[in-house]
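Appendix B, record 7
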Amino acid sequence: MKTRIFLSFVLLLFSITQAMAQTTAFTYQGKLTEGGSAPNGNYDLTFQLFDTSTVGSGAQLGATLNLNSVPVSSGVFTVQLDFGACPSCFNGANRFLEIAVRPSGGGSFSTLSPRQPISSTPYAVRSVSAATADGLSLSCASCVTSAQIQNVQGSQVTGAVAGSQINGTIPVASVPAGSASYIQNGTAQQASSAFNISGNGVIGGRLGVNTSNPQYAVHVVGQDVRVESNTVNTFPRFSWNFTGGGSHEKKWQAYAAPLTLNFSALTDFENFEDIWMQVKRRNLTNIESITFPSYGSIVGVGTNSPQAKLHVSDIGTNAFRPTALRVESDYSGAILASFGAIGPFQIDAPGIPGGRLNVYGNGTVILGDCVGCFPGVSDRLIVNGTTRIVSLGSGGSTSLCRNGSGQISACSSSLRYKNNIANFSSGLSLLNRLRPVTFDWKDSRAHDLGLVAEEVAAAEPLLVTRNEKGEVEGVKYDRLSAVFINAFKEQQNQIEQQQAQIKAQDKALGALRTQLASLEQAVRHPRTQQGATVSKLGGRRPRRARRQSISVITLNSRPAPN
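Structure tokens (predicted):
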């Protein structure tokens, strides 16, 4: 299990271990806190000596000390540190300890930041190199002091003498070359030398850092050029002044402030600034935002004459990117881009403002260059051009139409939307002029059936649609229902006439059947018929009638053909 260690040093003791003789070791005591409480146990510690306080910068001095299983009681630990015989470790300059800690037994080290300064010890340590002063005289060690030296000829000065005790001129030949104690006048590089100037200075030529041939007023070769503030209320800054600029046009600055890096324009009196760019950090090295807070700021990318707050251009002879602007995010639920304005959001052609795509504040979207398109209050999508729909949903039951304003609407047939109403009487005669056909579509090669629009237009122009050129385009198949209604009425009238004719024929056929039945009876019983006849004649027998041949005709009724 990993343990996060938070170190807060509340006490720093720096003392010299007393023994029979001085050594380079010293005692260091600190205190650990873990999660707000003081821990107990064993910890591994590492100590490194640096010349700067910021972790990751400066030069390490001496070796790295690794101390394992250091006992910690109530957060307090005490260790012996010994960087050995290291002349540069404690030469009077500021020194800082970089400390890393982890629980004993493994895991990664946590490094403290900032480094801990090492203060002066309350017990003076005799310099190890001071023994060379004894060489003046073994029997007269420390018997001659600077205060006792009143006057020395410059030509006799060969060792280290306080400047206040020197009187006279030192010959150049007596000045040792390459000394780190002073700056020599020359063009050759002076090794191991340093200087510290508290007053003002003027350099008439160029100043080179790590170069003997500076090409600019200040020429730095290498890295780590730093400007630091000397108090918490001052901000380290770089400033520029173009002397040829106009009034309030020539001064600029960049400076660091808490959690921000500001770039601003200054007035000539440097009493007012306009921050045109600001970089904010959240913590450590995380950049939170880059803003352009100035009210009138506009930013151009790929153009030196931006026409908007942010103008990205990739046109002309220098255009070489396939994508001029890309926005992406892999955060789940993130909003890729958000735009808000009183006016519309537009995507237009290069160099032609106005928009091939317009999204208005009320949510209306216009696709295509649509000059003169004025969306209605309820319009949400206006398409000027061909619309291609790759797939449709299923289970629909509502038909859609296009009204006179070009809107997709429900198919209406109310009297409220109609004028000049007149009867339309074409029916069977019109249908008989139409020719159903089968065919293959040219683009998809799908086999289909229907009518030929040009043939339908010749039979009835109201049944076809035309394109913007006036050419016949399609058949209004839904309008054929009106023709079908007239055809159905005509057929129904014919059916009713045929039914009346059949009824009259059935009545006449019934009468014929009655007569036929009487004839059949007479044929089957002729004598009975004759007796009845004699009786009617008063008992006289009639003359024998000639034998006649009677054919029996059977009539069957059947409906007339359609």
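Remarks on this record: The two ends are 99 Å apart (CA to CA). The CA atoms of residues 256 and 483 lie 85 Å apart.
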